[in-house]
Amino acid sequence: MRQFSLIFLLVISVIHTLAVDKNNFKTCDQASFCKRSRSVQHERSPFEVNIDTLIVNPNYINVDLTNKHNGQIFDLKLEGIKGNTFHFEIDEKSPLKPRYRVVDALKGEPTYEAIKVTATGSDITVKCGENKVIIYATPFKLEFYQNDVLTISANSKAKMHFEHLRRKQEAPPPPENENEQNENEAQDQNQDEPGTWEENFKSHHDIKPNGPSAVALDFTFHQANILFGIPEHADSFALKTTVGNGDPYRLYNLDVFEYELNSRMALYGSIPVVYGHGHKSTSGIYWQNAAETWVDIAGTASEQNVMESIVSFVAGSRQQDAPSAHFISESGIIDVFVVLGPSPNDAFKQYTALTGSGNLPQMFAIGYHQCRWNYNDQQDVMQVATKFDEHDIPMDTMWLDIEYTDSKKYFTWDHQKFPNAVEMMKNLTNMGRHLTFIIDPHIKRDSGYFFHNDCTDRGYYIKNKDGKDYEGWCWPGSASYPDFFDPEIRKYYADQYLLENFKENSRDTGIWNDMNEPSVFNGPEITMPKDNLHYGGWEHRDVHNLYGQMQLVGTFDGLLRRAENELRPFILTRAHFSGTQRYAAVWTGDNAAEWGHLEASIPMCLSLSVAGISFCGADIGGFFGNPETELLYRWYQTGAFIPFFRAHAHIDTKRREPWLYPDDVKLIIRDAIRKRYSFLPLWYTMFYEHERSGLPIMRPLLSQYPLDKNAYNIDNQFMLSDKLLIRPVMQKGASKVDVYFPSRNGDKQADIWYDIDDYRKIERVGVESVTVNTYKVPVYQRGGTIIPRKMRIRRSAILMENDPITLIVAVDSDKRAKGTLYIDDEKSFAYRQGKYLYIEFEFIDGVLSSQLIDETASYTTKVWLERVIIVGLDKVPSSATLRASNNQATQVDIIDASKTAFTIRKPGVSLMEPTWSITLNY
Ligand SMILES: *[C@@H]1O[C@H](CO)[C@@H](O)[C@H](O)[C@H]1NC(C)=O
């Protein structure tokens, strides 16, 4: 029996081979700066402000800061920014050499605001609008007040650590750790911790020419119950306590093969913004640093005690300290933006006011994307595209992974498999579809390859520590990596996308920038050595997390110029940093065909969304492995309500196009995709509003229900804008799912919700068990909203451009509702010159009216109003009267009346009419 179960276990472990090899990646203890900084434990911070040195300017102050342990002097600069935001920097007053400052993340210079400064002998108060900062001199501490409420403090836990640049022969500073002072009487540099001046990891040696250079600071969120943010991790939305509980969350862009769930390991992207949320307010810290960063979290619920802490919140007690985040970076300066909310949406907007919002995508990019590694040849591509038509399944974009290239040389095609690439693209265009192909940053070292020769001749590659072109190993074999930090190299790179240079290309193909962490198969932690050298003499250590973004800057410029600035570029990236939303959509990388990965896609995309990246998605079906049928269709149903909607699969997986499954399964998948298309007008409006307001599209429940503590830790539900509540089915064999309906006031005050499929009304706070058949995705429209849809589904999104609109008016308890619709040419930048319609609908007292939000904007469209479905009124009217702009009245019929909804049939009004109204007649 024993024998048998042992064999059984072995078999199981062979089947479940999907597992990350953790040995490839460092722990905090293996990254010497993390280990050193994490253990800093002062009873009293050695940093003190020299108030005598205060210099006051209209928008900022400068003052000196001294480390009493070693006499090092630092410059603190603090400035006020419009919109409840402060910025401060701490750098060495006179460093041995300049330290790296991130300049490519912000969308531009922030809008500064006037400050008023008062100083006493012990502190400095900086007022800005309603807010203030108190800088305490001894010991150094910053307190940020939003409207007189202490919201965030910095260094109140005395963990500030700043390793000034020094020469190796210098005596090291006295030990930072006072408690261990006697044990560590290290007067001799040889007694610096191993790893301080050079470091080994596996077979890799890091020479650290600048020695130790870490910076670290702690932040306490005094009004918060939970912290969230700092993507990208495959973990819960609310951050878990890490102190005394494993490693900190790590931010270091890495290509992690078969990443694991519930993990704080680094993934492909790093966005160092963390928010603290409590029922009184939301605030955030953007730690602007592109070096490897670790974040220790304390005072939040850990996995084990989530329920306990909810109970104690509800009981009004809080045994724990206020939550705090301790940021630790390997190099750079302390460069921090503090956003003070006070609402969650205020805080999200304040972050995107700094780093930008995503550009409105072309309509096709919001449709369904069909990808796999790889579609074999041009016949395969056209056959798959044709099959989507045969099976009446909408699809907008076919994708090509690396195998389309001539031996992984980007900007070339394999002419065996794709002899007529341009014709293939034209054929797709004729079907109303697009193509997206991959261009990775690694460049094959091949003397017959123009790109390699250009980069070699012109010195465009990143250099190794000896100043020679760095060589790594990636898909093409031996490869080098262009230094996208150099504007000249970015221009060269962008030029390669132009049709005159890359002829087998089109004005409108999408580009997929993958492997841009960068991935280096034989490098330390599957990436580039930190002592590699970049433009400006910076080490890779300083800029690592920004590398992928700099590739995107080049790609974006190339795609703009490829179409004479007429078309909005579509780019997908794997690596990301603060500001990536300005250039590209992001997907969650190489996930697996497992139920847990489907579930993880929600908190992963929510974390990215609040960190500015709204255009997020996960590979439908899972990249590694073969999904069971039920998982595949549940994944389609989930993905249909997530901004970036793409199926993708590893080269070793079985083909999984929808028609390869039995008819009943194909029909479920078809239904999910068609549902997505029916909501395209809403999606497009949400993307426009994201560009305009900076608010995320996909939102955690707390964005709309900040007072409902039960909603803080819900990871299997989310909202789209403030309109839809989504609870995807993500469990095998589920016939029921629990849906949580949140509270508006933290108690029993409910919003009204309507099931989008049958308009069933729900008005409650708490969990409802909802029956789900194979087709069902529990999605609810919030009472008080109006949603535009298109009910005539076509082969692709762009073919639906002129189709009529259906409005779903779902009333609140006052029988009112409001909504918006955005219309433009769906592809160009003409909307930035006022060529669009932005319409507001309002339903009050039985009258639906429409007016333009931006009256100066205009656009010629054939789109008209096909029907209005009014949901939640008790009485059905006998007819309705349409009044157009010229006040002419027309009678319209009421049809399909049920207990909860009725339809106003064919009002027929053009959406170009600046104002119109429909009155219900009883
Ligand atoms: C393009 O479409 C035409 C007409 O259907 C077909 O004959 C041709 O083979 C297609 N070419 C490619 C490359 O797909």
TrEMBL record:
Superkingdom of origin organism: Eukaryota
A molecular function (GO) term: alpha-glucosidase activity
Protein's pathway: Glycan metabolism; N-glycan metabolism
InterPro entries named in the record: Gal_mutarotase_sf_dom, GH, Glyco_hydro_31_AS, Glyco_hydro_31_C, Glyco_hydro_31_N_dom, Glyco_hydro_31_TIM, Glyco_hydro_b
GO biological process: carbohydrate metabolic process; N-glycan processing
CDD domains: GH31_GANC_GANAB_alpha, GH31_N
Domain Glycoside hydrolase family 31 N-terminal intervals: 76-296
Pfam families referenced in this protein's UniProt entry, alphabetically: Gal_mutarotas_2, Glyco_hydro_31_2nd, Glyco_hydro_31_3rd
Entry annotated with the keyword Transcription: no
Assigned protein family: Belongs to the glycosyl hydrolase 31 family.
PANTHER family to which the protein is assigned, alphabetical: ALPHA-GLUCOSIDASE, BCDNA.GH04962
Protein name: Glucosidase II subunit alpha
Organism of provenance: Chironomus riparius
Organism placement in taxonomy: Eukaryota, Metazoa, Ecdysozoa, Arthropoda, Hexapoda
